User: Fold these one by one.
Assistant:
Number 1:
Amino acid sequence: MNQQLSRRRFLHFSGAALGTAALAACQPAAPAATGEMSEEQPAAERVQIEFLGMPGSPDLIPEEQELFHDENPNIEWVLVQQAQGTSRLEQLMALVVAGTPPDTSRVESDVYRTFAHLGLLLPITSYIEADPEFSAPDYWIQPQEDNRQVYQGESYGIGSCWVAPHFYYNVSLFEELGVEPPSNDPEEAWGWDDFLAIATELTVDVNGNHPGDTDFDANNMERWGVNWPTWWIPLHAAVQSNGSDWIDAESEKIVLDTPEAIQALQNIADLRLAHGVMPRTEALEALGMGGTQLLETKKVALQVDGSWALSWSWEIEGGIGTAVLPAMQRPGTDMQAHLVTVVQDAENPDEAWELIRFLSSPWYQERYCRSGLWLPSQNALMTPESIADWCVAPEHPPGYELIVTEYAPNYGHYLTMPVGYVKAAETAINPVFSQIFNGEARAEDVLPAAVAEANQIMEDEQARPTS
């Protein structure tokens, strides 16, 4: 490695890296390590390229390996099984320290820059620039792709896809109530006040009362108007919709202490605390249901969830509908996804690149877009002809192409997480989020100090030597 990672530094960063949840919803369960071999070429003549983590769906991997081996008969793609009781991120760092790193790996966006900073990842800029397809200026959806790939002038990975939070609803519920559902068109996004009024109308206790009615019983509910989860991806969407950022692109400092960000976060908390249109944590725990079940049982009218949830939500009884999130000041959502990378100590980096390239090909991405799990990051999958081929029923409801072509690329913002961000969030930001969303504190009273502490932690982490 260019920068050797000491055992002490490994322990320090692995503890920080594991502090927050990454995009687990997009990560299928990992099967045992596999590497299908063709009969035409013995294993001894093939270069083995290990990939740590699951790049896609376990059900589709065998077919993908077969095609990759057909196209690259000199390379064997081997999936490295995730160790029992160990996160993939911790496992990667442990393998590097032990001197037995995999050649390639899935890396979540929250630790991508930290891993690059530590010298764990191989710069692949030269490979991208030498590739006539990947280097074309109109190949990727921009500027989001450069925002996530490039760290200090180098690309260390390629984004697998995009995902973005938006509304889901049960079509039959809105038909029964005679309520016009929200739209997939960002130009027709509900304003925040309109959204609150409709969410109040949709919220009802077992006696038919709504929030604000004298006899409204918040402890005996028939249905809530909305469920807006309070983890960072849905919250980033809210912050963006109020015209603010989570992290400033120029300074790479957390800016959740701006008036707009504070108001956005308090708005989400007040859905539960002030307006009574969103279930409290204890109510959700008592129900024991996920977002899809809440929609299917009609306990929640509008569910905020990632676009990946479409891959299973489309099957609900009553039919699934989707829509853009409400606009506080403007339409806005988060765009995120894991990256596929070449590990710094890869023994055969050229062959490792061929695997990364395959995992970033239109063929590979399209199959997961078709299932509803991913949104495209490649413009080739955004043409009317391509959309008409993969963005179709039954997985995609009518109008979903507007989420794909208008909402995500035009109003989606990538949350760049600088070196040390995960530790800063775990130490300083997440504890005050708990206070805000549990009603123990107002955002304006606790966020300024928390942001200052978090930025100092990031500054200290970035100044630490990597050896």
Number 2:
Amino acid sequence: MPNKAPTIVREIMSRDCYRVNGKTSVSTLAEGLALHRLPGVPVVDERDHLIGFISEQDVMGKVLESSYLNDEPPLVRELMRNEVLSVAPNKSITDLAQEMLGAKPKVYPVVEQGRLVGIVTRRDVLSALLRMRHA
């Protein structure tokens, strides 16, 4: 019996995802982004409530600047974006794909009752669309 193709975000999201808090240093964040090969990550509070998002692009200039000036790197909370595009775990993959055509983020936090429950990437959605097509 063939595997059923995924239809909602919950079926394709990464549950155990890299995340940071506002007190994380930008240099620690940069190391984590490189290690996990992510273009950006959700920022959460101590209860895993989504409070922001920070990307490679947000931090690249600051890391460069602090290395030139021998300054302490700034904290994530100083650079994160507070307005975050997030999705619900029960959102249709095809609806999300349509939204992604006009939106910039490559990584979307998946939020349920205000708490981060995972992330979904454009690559995850594209792979799911291909599986749906061949199902």
Number 3:
Amino acid sequence: MTVERRLRACVDRFAGTSGYALSQALGPMLTDAELASMWLQERLIGLQQPRPQLPAGFADPVCQSLVMLDHQRVHLSLAIVSAEGWKAESVTQVGAPQIVGFADGWTTIRFLSAPLAKVQRHYLDQTLQDRRAFAESPRQVTTGEVICLDNAREALRFVGLGADVVMLRLLVRDPDAQQAVECDARTGAVLRIREAQSGDGRTRMMLSLLRSLGRSDAVPAIAEALASWPAHLRWHGVREALATDSIAGFALLQAMAETDPDADLRALARRTRDDLLTRYPQLAA
């Protein structure tokens, strides 16, 4: 069995497990130095073939990575952080805000080689009226160290690199996360709030456009897609359906009140349904 198949089999064993629990279960299994070596060996052998299958990846002046696994909600990559690239970027960004991002999911990082690396951990405090990030004191990391992050409220950034760093990064995505926040690393001030899921904003816009254009197929399209959407998008979709066609949209609201897997969303749908029936009893016809 190839390493990639072994990795996929590990993920499939925990099908149905919630995000945080999935991250806790897979972290020790997948961020394994021996597995990474075996995976690299397979790739090196593959390069000797006439048509090598190169792994997906990305590169910038600071971080270069190879994707070992991208399966269901799980993303595993092997990354090299260039000390030279990091220093050059630090010089060019003098005076500019250093951004630290809080996104969706949970990340496990295992440092395979970190001889001269210093990191700083940031926390997003969402209990305050104005959200703000706070930072721990910078500290040295060691080879073999594992750091686990709840990405919605924790982030890690390098503040010193004397040599290249090699690390395994495991990300378990949270499809229900709604917002990602970017803060100034020095002051903690929020600089930007955006959609956590890159596709969510496009989906919201698409639904609004369908309604604005008066498309007759808007509600059937929403009904067909609802089951595949996270809770916040399901609610948005039903609201757009109600605004597009009150009768057909009310049927979706009724179904959500009775059968949606999210208990809070069912309760919200029931309250909305009852309020609408009080004001517009003809919807019950």
